[in-house]
# Entry
Amino acid sequence: MKTEYDVIVVGGGPAGIPAAVQAARLGAATLLIEKTGQLGGTTTTGGVNYPGLFHAWTRPIVGGIAWELVERVTRETGSTLPDFSRQRQRPHHTEHVLVDRFVYAMICDEVVLESGAQCLFHAMPTGVREDARAKTVRVACKEGVREFGAKVVIDATGDANLASIAGYPVRVRQTLQPGTMVCTLAGYDVGSLDLEQLRVNADAEVAAGRLSYTDFSWDSTGFSPQIIKQSGRNANHVRGIDARTSEGKTRMDIEGRRSLLRLYRFLRTQPGFENLRFDYVAPECGVRETVTIDGEVEVTAHDYQSGRVWDDAVCYSFYPIDLHSCEGTGLQKRYLEEGTVATIPRRAMLPKGSANFVVAGRSICSDREANSALRVQASCMAMGQAAGAMAALAVRRDQSVSDVPITEIRKTLKAHGTVVPGVEQERAVIR
Ligand SMILES: Cc1cc2nc3c(=O)[nH]c(=O)nc-3n(C[C@H](O)[C@H](O)[C@H](O)COP(=O)(O)OP(=O)(O)OC[C@H]3O[C@@H](n4cnc5c(N)ncnc54)[C@H](O)[C@@H]3O)c2cc1C
# Structure
């Protein structure tokens, strides 16, 4: 394995995969560093295998490598895509694309390796030395600490880990949205359950401190059989843990499994659950929110909801404002006005005062509400591809990422199949 690269991407999730693939397809020698043993991030390791949203108001808004991944896994598994041609008032649930999370992880390996990018799994950065022209990333590997050089680095960790390690300030939230330990429950028949008796028994267990209402659902105020009715999936809430550090992530993963174990032990004593089993438990708890970088600009809820077209917009993003309550009182959701689509500016992806340091995915500079929408997977994938393009162009042109003309980035992204603001349409309101 080489030690010198043009571009190093840290984090192989929705943002990191297209970043590495795009950089490599543009000829940059690219290394993708990932802390787990598989690609996909929250889609695979977090078990949230329904990326969205690739379309808005019936039109594609995220294409390129993101859509290529969707098409490849869909073709491979013979599954069907939702019908995007029907206008829906509230499209977000019905237009997620369900992917087989195991096959998806395999396809991600294939696409990344085909691009020419190299992968280094089971590795995490411990330090970054940098000047404007060169970076050295120190990486904890199984065999010890190694150093890799690059001209541009991309932080796609979801937690701005690389930016923090490099010393760039991050914005820490006062309160954090809960995580979820995704699972699949099986071995019972919902139709034959006595849900009223289950409620009475669950209330008693919660009162005795052996169970939490959020083991069953997103609501901490009372019993809801959400996790039972939907056979697991994205139903429990793990609250009050900052998961951006190893210590925090450890607590969150243990608490997520502890929650499922409480549920399992309780349900196994209830009529109808004698054969209860887990068909799937995500290897890691899914994280909704940690920190964002302090970028050159911040995407606010107003920018997002008004469909602001930034002068340096590099991709679209579309989702309702979707805040999961920290107190366990469900969801705060605000839909975008019909026809409105948000855009993501390059400057929100650049830590203040940085050079050739790009952030893509959930941790770009954004306020809480905007972040609750732009964090979705298709948006992160689009940001990732944009990050890969700007990094590779910076290397090719021997310029700083912030100096690469935005027209050049957009032209390149369009040539690689993405839907680019300022190219397809001048305004993000696409009535
Ligand atoms: C329960 C839940 C439900 C959700 N529902 C949906 C939904 O329905 N549809 C949707 O589109 N989105 C959904 N989301 C949001 C979405 O999944 C995430 O916001 C999105 O995956 C973020 O992408 P990312 O690439 O920024 O980060 P991540 O998905 O977190 O990927 C980061 C990658 O970097 C790796 N990594 C992290 N730190 C390091 C490090 N220090 N060194 C090396 N590697 C590192 C991780 O292992 C991971 O592979 C949901 C999220 C959760 C938690």
Summary: The first strand starts at residue 7 and ends at 10.
